[in-house]
Amino acid sequence: MTAPHRPAGWLPDPLDPALVRYWDGLRWTFHTAVARVERPTAPAPEPVRPAVALRPDIAQAVDRVRGLLVGARKEVNLLEEHLEPEERVLALTGALGEGTGVLVCTDRRLLFLFVGLLRRQFLQVRWNEAREVVYDRTTKVFAVYTVRRTKRAVPALAVKVQARSDAEAVAHAAASAASAPRLDVL
């Protein structure tokens, strides 16, 4: 078997990848050495993202939450992008719509925000549209109706809120923010 014509030098050993063997230009010699392993340079660490500084009204509302905001922190951080200029957040809590998001009561409206990998959900009801705000303690559903509530009425916004105290805090803020809606806690 004829070896390919190569200049003399230290080359990877064809029988042991951990070694290099000397090629004299015609044939392999018996001279070997441990192959130098190029250590891959460690990838540069990703820059640490600074914690999102929340607006003071949002931060105060987050501080008043008694339940958990598990799974809703991303939405809380994105909340400012969905607020109108000079709109103030009065209360908020974690809630479940099409995914875990945040239910927010502002001085202008009630809104629910969920941002998932594949889906987004943004529901809002302005105070001039709202007729009734209802929190049912047994089903834990927080609902806002834009029509008179009957058995056939469909709420404009309905989400599940696990923490009763937070749902009542949002409902209380809704009652104080809106002059028209009537609040029922069942």
Helix/strand layout:
Blueprint: E1 9-12, E2 19-23, E3 28-34, H1 56-64, H2 73-82, E4 89-96, E5 100-106, E6 109-115, E7 120-126, E8 132-136, E9 141-145, E10 157-160, H3 164-177, E11 182-185
Parallel strand pairs: 8-11
Antiparallel strand pairs: 1-2, 2-3, 4-5, 5-6, 6-7, 8-9, 9-10
Q: Briefly note the structural class of the backbone.
A: alpha+beta
On the 0 to 100 scale, the average pLDDT is: 83
> What best-fitting shape do the alpha-carbon axes yield?
rod-shaped
**Biggest sheet: strands, sense, closure?**
4 strands, antiparallel
Strand order of the largest sheet: 4-5-6-7
Strand content: 25-35%
- Give the fraction of residues assigned to helices: 10-25%
Q: How many E-type strands?
A: 11
Which stretches are low in confidence, meaning pLDDT under 50 for 5 or more residues running?
none
Radius of gyration: 32 Å
End-to-end distance: 91 Å
Count of DSSP H/I helices: 3
Question: In sequence order, what are the helices and strands, one letter per element?
Answer: EEEHHEEEEEEEHE
Task: Please provide a brief summary of the model.
This protein has 186 residues and is of the alpha+beta class. The chain is 18% helix and 34% strand. Strand 5 and strand 6 form a beta hairpin.
Give structural attributes.
alpha+beta; 4-stranded antiparallel β-sheet; 186 residues
